[in-house]
Amino acid sequence: MSGPPRCGTSCATGAGSATTTCPTVRAPAGAHRSRAARDPLGQPRQVFTGFTTERVRTGEASIFVRHGGSGEPVLLLHGHPRTSATWHRVAPRLVDAGFFVVCPDLRGYGRSRGPEAVPDHSAHSKRAVARDMLTVMRQLVFSTISTVHESVYCRDRGEDQRSDHCADP
Q: What CATH number is given to the structural domain containing 120?
């Protein structure tokens, strides 16, 4: 896909001069990025406070997972090209509402790792990702789950992953 770089690519790395503007937010390059990582007093923003982080091995992948709370489990799936950090504002609210919240980085994203790519792309298919999520939830001792995925808000792969999970229990 061609066109101007999106926020988080060249503008976030500081490429260009101070007069370069981010085509997404029309601000000086990187300015919005640094504000997003700091609180109003300029201190680093704390996210996922009270959540546990761990790695779940699924056989062919190593999935980075953040989880917290207690009660009914909710699995929050990020979209492309995001990570579990997408849910940093939603997850604590769900915990406060009485849910056990699971926020994984899908295979190949963030701190998760998957197998080497293969010609038919099956190693990183939606079906493979759905199997990873089923393994994650089973290792966290849950047999039934509710999923929340970004496709509720924007185009995403989450809907297909949820459907694959339902199709292949």
A: 3.40.50.1820
Q: How many domains does the chain have?
A: 2
Contact 102, 47 (CB under 8 A): no
* Token pair belonging to 2: 């061609």
pLDDT digits (tens, 9 = 90+) for 11-21: 443 444 444 44
The verdict on 162 and 87 lying in the same domain is yes
pTM across the whole model: 0.64
Kindly report, residue by residue over 95-126, the tens digit of the pLDDT.
Answer: 999 999 999 999 999 999 999 999 999 999 99
- Find the radius of gyration of the CA atoms of the chain: 18
